[in-house]
Amino acid sequence: MFRPPPPPGLASGLPARAGLGLKPQHVLEILATWPDVGFFEVHAENYMVDGGAMHHHLGRIREHYPVTLHGVGLSIGGEQAPDPAHLDRLAALIARYQPAVFSEHLAWSSHGGVFFNDLLPLPWNRATLQRVGDHIDLVQNRLQRTLLLENPASYVEFSASTFSEAQFLVELLRRTGCGLLLDLGNVHVSCVNHGRDPRQYLAALPADRVGQIHLAGFATDRDGAGAPLLIDHHGAPVDGAVWQLYAEWLAAAGPRPTLIERDNDIPAWSTLWAEARHAETLMLAAPGQTRRTDVA
What we know:
Elements: E1 18-21, H1 27-33, E2 40-43, H2 53-64, E3 67-70, H3 84-97, E4 101-105, E5 108-111, E6 114-120, H4 126-143, E7 147-150, H5 165-176, E8 179-183, H6 184-194, H7 198-203, E9 210-216, E10 219-222, E11 228-231, H8 240-253, E12 258-261, H9 269-285
Parallel strand pairs: 1-2, 1-12, 2-3, 3-4, 4-7, 7-8, 8-9, 9-12
Antiparallel strand pairs: 5-6, 10-11
């Protein structure tokens, strides 16, 4: 049985700096200039093939930078256990690149062999807690490493829920020993959509279980009643409200490896790199920070 390490091991080898998603549009520029970036992240499912240009480029990147793998297809919240063949491909990918972190979403995306290409919500109750906990145990045992679980962006809530989302996460972390990928964009999106206080949500989470932070932009719409509806679409710069949450979290808990996510409407490399540098400026401005530090 795999036993997750204590909290300091959550992001072993990953610097407490800002990283960026590795996008095909930017690869040649990165390889030509080797910019000063803390790490690069890729979606695991994009690399579940044996070869090709993407593997060639990622291999070169891995020689110079830490890499993290972010999964979108395990369906940890699904009714069925994660697909063994998918886990085998994931294990092979981890063996190949030795990423500093592997993360997945607290959501479901498949049922009965059908993949829905979306990250779908869950009721926060004891039945879900048992099922998701079992699935996390299975994944951590197969991969022999600590999983970082990402809090979701949500647009509906279930009457069957008996926990708040934060309470559910706290209990899940306690039961499984997994870590938390704290997506502050998702915190803002969900709290606006459900009329909740994001600062109360964050105060309920154990900061020492946070191994990585994600920051991303969102789209703004209106629901059927005319209330604000935020959509986590990763197609815009990080919003000012999310930057403010990030600065407050850093002041309270200290720096963590932080990814700027951008998966749609990809801008020029210089635009994303500027956001990464802004995140590092906020890290250095946190109380007690006089230089870059690494998460041990």
